[in-house]
Design goal:
Elements: H1 3-12, H2 16-30, H3 36-47, H4 49-73, H5 78-85, H6 87-99, H7 102-109, H8 115-124, H9 129-151, H10 154-159, H11 161-185
Helix pairs in contact: 1-3, 2-3, 2-4, 3-4, 3-9, 4-8, 4-9, 7-9
């Protein structure tokens, strides 16, 4: 699918296209198997760098906070109690309580971090909802902004080999850093 086809597809929705641009990243917060990177790139190519980035950012922040808030409200359920009782979850809760929200902020800045896992752990931790909301606003802005900038003019990725090499290097570095941080904060343990 070309950029022009994506733009025509969004144009079919008219003003509702903005809602679709918001809903795609919003739904990804509930279904983490969906590709947030693709949604951001589609948004910035359909609506431009600024509007596309804002739509994706608002969608992912709203969706993530609703997941966090919903799970926090359902903390009394047996399933949530089992998740909270796991050794890994307890270690993360303890770590967040000791270190504050900075590790969560760092993890959420990387597009390859499973944000659903972070939302779940944050919801069963002792983080205040307002603090988590601010962490989401800032970290997701960095992540979405980076993806949006890299995918802003996707056609130049194929016509300009230098940009393609830079993008591939940045993605590999971000992925490696994200994996290192994920291993540091969420080391494997037998439960």
């Amino acid at each position: 699918m070309t950029v022009e086809q994506v733009q025509q597809w969004f144009a079919l929705f008219g003003d509702l296209g903005y809602i679709v641009g918001f809903l795609l990243p919003f739904i990804e917060a509930f279904l983490p198997i969906l590709p947030i990177i693709v949604f951001v790139i589609v948004n910035v190519n359909a609506y431009g760098l600024i509007i596309g980035t804002i739509l994706a950012w608002l969608g992912t922040v709203c969706g993530s906070f609703i997941v966090f808030w919903s799970l926090r409200q359902l903390a009394h359920l047996k399933y949530i109690q089992r998740v909270k009782a796991r050794k890994t979850t307890q270690r993360l809760i303890s770590f967040v309580d000791r270190r504050g929200v900075i590790p969560i902020f760092i993890l959420l800045c990387f597009p390859f971090t499973p944000s659903a896992v972070v939302n779940i752990v944050a919801s069963v931790s002792h983080i205040k909802p307002l603090h988590y909301f601010w962490v989401l606003l800032t970290s997701k802005f960095i992540m979405i902004g980076m993806i949006g900038w890299l995918g802003n003019d996707i056609t130049t990725l194929f016509t300009n080999p230098t940009k393609m090499i830079i993008v591939i290097c940045v993605i590999i570095i971000v992925w490696l850093l994200g994996r290192k941080l994920e291993q540091h904060f969420m080391h494997n343990s037998k439960e």
